[in-house]
Amino acid sequence: MKKISIISFIIFCAFLTSCSNFVEVEQYNKRTLKYTSDYQYLLNNSNIFEYGYILPLLSSDDIDINSSVILKNLSDEYKAVYTWKESIYTADQTDVNWANIYKQIYNTNAILESVLSSKKGTDAEKQAIYAEALVQRAYSYLMLMNMYSPIYQESTADETKGVPMLLTPDLYTSLERPSSRRVYEQIIKDIREALPNLTALPNNVIHPGKAAGYALLARTYLYMQRYDSAGVNAQKALDIQNTLLDLRELTTSTMPTRFNDPEIILSKVASFDQTLPLNSKLLNLFTTNDLRYSLYTRDGGSLSPTFTGRAFYRNQLTNEKINVGLSVPEMMLIKAESLIRSNLYVEGINVINELRKMRFQAADYTPLEAQSVNDALKIVIEERQRELMGRGLRWFDQRRLGSEEGLISTVERTVDGVTYTLEPMSNRYTFPIAQNIIDLNKEISQNPR
User: Would strands 411-415 and 418-422 be described as parallel, antiparallel, or unpaired?
Assistant: First the structure.
């Protein structure tokens, strides 16, 4: 019974509960997936499939908690994440971040195993559901790899450990960690297999369409540092979906919800509700006439508890959780970085300027210019910090860019009189696996710390 605890018996039961409003009850206290529509209803469950992550919100250098009140309000495990400690959870605690993502994987595997033989559905409907489940599984593994597996490097990808890779709903399969390369190969395989059957226009942003498939490939290749492939797929996503919010025409009261936001390609939300102070170094990258600064951040003195500085506030404008999914701006920035790294830095800066035109009033807008590839690379990384701030995505950039001189700095934080340091390429860029998971699943090895 021990192997079941990778996602835990509670999560197995949660799978059944999650279906309770959607699938037919065949007999007393037994729910089954039988009809094609049952599988679609399961994929409609945003409580399962819209979950993104928590930990990168606290660990990235986007934030710097200068308030003793906010620190006091953080749980011990979140303080440990914030300070990149060797151990995060006590022996009797589980990692909700890990558990929720493996819950997604379990559900996608259940769909992939049986939907093609389900009843009362057309072949096209079954193939579309199958494709969507493949993309959801690929997204889940990409996030797990960039939290719980060492930083991907092509030269060591066969030796470094990935994460336990479950490809069927069999809870008693091997939990030994395959190589990083093997997991990334599966992620890419899933997406490529899905693409022909993904719908061009999904019903809403919690369902992946073709643009999401290409966008996920772009992010995957970005994290693998295969920048040419990242740029190619970012462009394919943009060929399908490329509308930007024009911040010149928006106010804090007219900001669209995620279901009406044309920038969102696939919605994933961070399940963390506390407002955190942004790092002053990040804030110094903005000019005060940047509309992202005035619309998306708030003075800490106006929040509760109060603090010095500013906080990311975009999600609060629509009373939603922070969206950490795939977006049009992210694809534009991936395309720009790919061009720059291919020595087409003028073209890359032009893409960045297309984005920035929507972030300043016309009288305040000045196009950026670069004199070299290195200059342009610094510009695109800083633009990623501005455009993607407060979403935890910076953590993944810190990981992949750590080996490039001058792009990622050492980060320091002081909590309760103790200073913690995170150097580029540190093992602390990989979250430890909760000890109770390892205790119950001896096949799973801990990450080097």
Answer: antiparallel
Q: Please, which residues bridge with residue 310 across strands?
A: 299
Residues present in the chain in total: 449
284-299, pLDDT tens digit by residue? Answer: 999 999 999 999 999 9
DSSP 8-class letter at 50: T
Secondary structure of residue 442 in the 3-state scheme: coil
What's the token pair of residue 316? 């609060």
Measured CA to CA, the distance from residue 201 to residue 371 in angstroms comes to 40
Chain segment 170-206, per-residue pLDDT in tens: 878 889 999 999 999 999 999 999 999 999 989 999 9
pTM of the model as a whole:
0.93
Q: Is the peptide bond before 178 cis (omega within 30 degrees of 0)?
A: no
Residue 35's beta-bridge partner residues? 119
d(CA 172, CA 168): 10
Q: Cα separation of 443 and 359, whole Å?
A: 49
Alpha carbon distance 149, 145 (integer Å): 5
- For residues 89 and 95, the answer to whether their CB atoms sit within 8 Å is yes
Please give the Cα distance from 61 to 390 (Å, whole number).
10
Q: Hey, is 418 helix, strand or coil?
A: strand
